[in-house]
Amino acid sequence: MTEYEAVIGLECHVELSTATKMFCGCRNEFGAPPNTNVCPVCLGHPGSLPVPNREAIRRIITIGLALGSEIAPHSLFHRKNYFYPDMPKNYQISQYDLPICVGGHLDVEVPNGQGSRVGITRVHMEEDTGKTTHGSPSGRIHDADAALVDFNRAGVPLVECVSEPDIRSPEEAGAYLRELRATLESLDVSDVRMEEGSLRCDANVSMRPVGDTELGTKVEIKNMNSMRSLERALAYEISRQTKALETGEPIVQETRHWNEDAGATATMRSKEEAFDYRYFPEPDIPAIEPSAEWIEELRAALPELPRARRERYVAEHGLKDEVVRVLVADRTASGLFEQTASLGADPAAAANWITQDLAGLANKHGAEAAARVTPRHLVDLLALLGDDAISGAGAKQALEDVVETGDDIGAIVERRGLRQVSDSGELGAIVDGVLAEHDDASRKFRDGNESVIGFLVGQVMKASGGSANPKLAQELLRDRLQG
Amino acid sequence: MTELCDLTGDELSTKLRAGEITAVALAESALARREAVDDRVGAFLTPTPEVALERAAELDTYLATGAPQTGVAGIPLALKDVLTTKGIRTTCGSKILETYVPPYDATAWTRLSGAGSVLIGKTNCDEFAMGSSNENSAYGPVHNPWDLDTVPGGSSGGSAAAVAAGMAVWALGTDTGGSVRQPASLTGVVGLKPTYGRISRYGLIAFASSLDTVGTFTRSVRDAATLLGVMAGKDRRDATSLDADVPDFTRGLDDGAAGLRVGVLAEAFGEGVEPDVATSVRAGVDRLASLGAEVGEATLPHAEYALSAYYLIAPSEASSNLARYDGVRYGLRVDGDDSIEMMFRTRGAGFGPEVKRRIMLGTYALSAGYYEAYYGQAQKVRTLILQDYAAAFERFDVLVSPTSPSTAFPIGAKADDPMAMYLNDIFTIPANLGGVPAISVPCGLDGAGLPIGLQLTAKALDESTMFRAAAALESDLDLELRPPLLAAA
Ligand SMILES: [Zn+2]
């Protein structure tokens, strides 16, 4: 039986976090009351004209440089014409055959797999549209009596990054998107939040027999709103297309919509219904011609990119690949790590705490609360742990307390009584008392039932009010019982 | 008899400064003229008498302080109804914008207003500036003050007629393929289309963005130079506005034509040009020669393709520019079962036949599979015309041709024949495709007593030389141009 492989290309849309919109002076912010950040330009009023935002151009050039693209010395905006109620001019200012960034690549690492290089076809600049909601008693489209449009998002700078069809699996697609997000995050150009729509992704999927070089019929998938839905949708689509090929059903070139609840894709529009966008050069905007000096200036100012950072963490701190991958995927996390390590904390311990415990707390309490944790907190926490002055469990409690209150570690340890007794004299007295009280258990131990030691440690903990260092308690118990 | 509103802006500005007249009296004069004649002419869509009188009174107070004045302060101005005015309805001569009140002013108007200009009203025009006779206005035609049965030209016919009949001392129009120069020619006034990008297009409701230019109607070349000086210059709201020095365009106007190299466009005197027009324009050229200009024969070899190229580029851009009129945010809305049907119905009801024709032309020309053959080819012609101009301006300072092949024609005469109508712009279109400045100056009357215009074209940003040639001709001809409508009044 023929084996098939998936051929996947991703088109990612990234909203830039510039202070103002792409072609007007309106503020670019998420979550403002509807239609408050609007003006004649972004509402498409008659006679208004777009003026490109230089900062947005700077950012897309920076993105291109980070992805190894060629920065075009001459590029043009084009108009993409189609009617949609939330598009104020009924054309989108975009780019067509002369994008700002041409070519490039992104090196990605698939978890538990091989690294691979995904080609970048192009990165171009465009503007976002408004948002339509359907005003109806139920909020559903079928009984809507009005469509309400919010134009706050209209004209927000949008970067489209198109990959080559180099991706072969949902996991690789996920890794690509994560790497792209980390790269954009390190460049400080976008909020890259999929849940807020500042990072969006469409996919082109086709299947072909393994070994073939020709591409199969391409299907475009839209509406994947999270990393998870990207991987799920691709897995679904691959299995759908594989089944179709195996049963001899034709695969139709079309656009399909991913339905998260149903866990399936469904036809949105066929090739015949595809729009003719009637692209032509935008006459309101002169060609974008960045000087070679400016491009070199931006190249020199590029920050350390995730891949280089991962390599450095392994080389400098000897961290494990898996930990490094998680750490570098999140700029806040890696920033915290770097500062904590630079203050003298053990890098491996710091990395583990950040990628595991703190990540868990961020899920539980929210990223904003987790941001209360400073490098100083971690340094103090790790120092107490290193001295056995607190237990692992105590440290976890202390960290959660920081997330909740932001208090100093020292204060939290005192307030919660987390300091453990690690003084052998003090603890020895408690151990002696416990042994005296539990004569039978001591005897069992001496008779060879070593598991009874757990019970005895528990008694020591109880007698100390939980403050005993359990490791030391066990040591002292053994000393006395075996001595 | 001649009244205040019949004088030039320059003459009036002198009188205002000298305290001989008041801005209120001047505004009243123009308003009275409109009351007297506009029911027959139809130049204004939205007159603004209250705005004008209030502004004039403010200016009189200011003038009384003896503070320095600009050349436009206190002078009544009319604006073509495609230039946005904050708080004042702006229709583009279309039903689709019948109720549209812009939230902002066009930059050209902002600059004039800031210099003390007095807005007297918004003028009639072909719908979305598409036309050469003003018969495509949704609000009825404009009648030429020289003969009320004829057209004033278009698309800025209302502004041209207003200036010709003294309802405004001067006016702004827009020129995409000749929409200022051709009506200026047909109504016996001076019509200026500056270099593309000289004046900001912000607030000029777009017809064809790469060709649209704000232009002026005046009774003298000097007045055109004055208005241009106030409006010209980089505008941060228009990325295509030019960041070029703005000279004092009124300097050198009296330097005469001696030594100017004048190229006569031989191809512009051939078939289709009315004999009276050709004769009059040739006579104008002879006058320039007699004033010491070096006259030679010039050619724009690719100008014969200009009309075809224009009727691909302009409708293509228009089809996209006019897509925004969908009933969602402003203007006319005709409800439908869903937003797409609403859009269809709104556009069906809101646009007139010529606008629909051009939207369809443009949509077709941009369609997949046709783009290269139509829009792509037209852009190549445009490049060739630019090269033609570059070559011509190596040999000449200005080029001369008739502005329009004909004088004013009867209303209705070409209404059913779009090709005949499009041929009106055959001499004006190349300057739009080339982005170069051009001006129409009156050079005589035909046998029926209708005005004839002579067009001068200069290289990009060299309006000064063009003004100098135009002023020399104007002062030499010293025409007394008064439409019969006013003689009868
Ligand atoms: Zn805006």
Largest protein-protein interface: A-B, 29 and 45 residues
Largest sheet entry of chain B:
11 strands, mixed
Tally the beta strands of chain B: 11
How many angstroms does the end-to-end distance of chain A come to?
71 Å
Tell me the CATH superfamily of chain B: Amidase signature (AS) domain
- At CATH level 3, the topology of chain B is Amidase signature (AS) enzymes
Strand-residue proportion of chain A: 15-25%
Number of helices of chain A: 16
Content-based structural category of chain A: alpha+beta
Number of alpha- plus pi-helical segments of chain B: 16
Strand elements of chain A, count: 15
* Shape assignment of chain A: elongated
If strands are numbered along the chain, what order do they take across the biggest sheet of chain B? Answer: 1-3-2-4-6-5-10-11-9-7-8
- The level-1 CATH class of chain B: Alpha Beta
What is the fold's blueprint, element by element?
The complex is a heterodimer of chains A (about 475) and B (about 500).
Chain A: E1 4-15, H1 54-66, E2 70-71, E3 78-81, E4 91-94, E5 101-102, E6 105-109, E7 115-127, E8 131-135, E9 146-150, E10 157-163, H2 170-187, E11 199-209, E12 219-224, H3 227-247, E13 254-259, E14 264-270, E15 280-281, H4 292-300, H5 306-317, H6 321-328, H7 331-342, H8 347-365, H9 367-370, H10 375-386, H11 392-405, H12 409-416, H13 424-437, H14 439-446, H15 452-463, H16 470-482
Parallel strand pairs in A: 12-13
Antiparallel strand pairs in A: 1-10, 1-11, 2-5, 3-4, 3-15, 5-7, 6-7, 7-10, 8-9, 11-12, 13-14
Chain B: H1 9-17, H2 23-41, E1 44-47, H3 49-64, E2 76-80, H4 107-114, E3 118-123, H5 157-164, E4 170-175, H6 181-187, E5 190-193, E6 213-218, H7 221-231, E7 261-265, H8 275-290, E8 294-298, H9 306-321, H10 339-350, H11 353-365, H12 372-395, E9 398-402, H13 418-422, H14 429-434, E10 438-445, E11 451-458, H15 463-477, H16 484-488
Parallel strand pairs in B: 2-3, 2-4, 7-8, 7-9
Antiparallel strand pairs in B: 1-3, 4-6, 5-6, 5-10, 9-11, 10-11
The structure holds zinc ion.
